[in-house]
Structures are given as structure tokens and as C-alpha cells.
Design brief:
single chain, alpha+beta, 32% strand, two-stranded antiparallel ribbon, 114 residues
Amino acid sequence: MDANYYYLNNYKNNGYMGISRRAFESVATKAANSVVDVNVKKRGKGVFALANPVAASFRKDGKVDITLEVTISKKAHANFKDICLKIQESVATAVSMMCEAVPFKVNVKVVSVY
């Protein structure tokens, strides 16, 4: 089995269905960017270009951890906690709609204010 896929059991012994790590990251990015005054951090340049601002990791217990690095507008600086909660809710709704059988956790990290 490939470590870049989350495999679902279909309980029919017909094989496996896998969801790509990139699919989780893409859905989380679009959901976070849909929140007002929030942008997912852009990829760095040069040496830091390998760092991904949205990362999905699969744990051995079957859960998916999604970590987002975001930038928040100065207009909303007083409500960081509320905005982070909105980001988590938006990502949770989007991932739940994509695949309701996958347990996941959403971590939000504010890296800058613009």
C-alpha cells in the first residue's frame, strides 16, 4: 500500500479505495481560502520552496491530521481565535462532504498578519 493514500474499506472484498494526500490538502486549501480575511500561506522561494503550507498526514490509528499555515488580515486581528475556529469549521465541513467515513483533525497555525 502506498503511504500517500488513505485507504477506505468498502466491506465487499472488491479491493480498496484510496484518497490521495494531495486531495485532502487541496480541499483544505480551498475551504480555508473561502473564509473572509484569510489566505493560505504561499510557498516559499529558494531553499524554503519545499515547505508546504498545507499538509495532510496519516496516522497509524487511522486518523488524518491536516495542518494549515495561514495569514490573516489586519482588519480581523482582534478575532484570531474566532477566525481560526471558522477555518477549522470550513475545512471540517469540506472534508466531511468529501468523505464522511474518515476521522480527521484540523490544526491552524497563523504565520503572519497582512
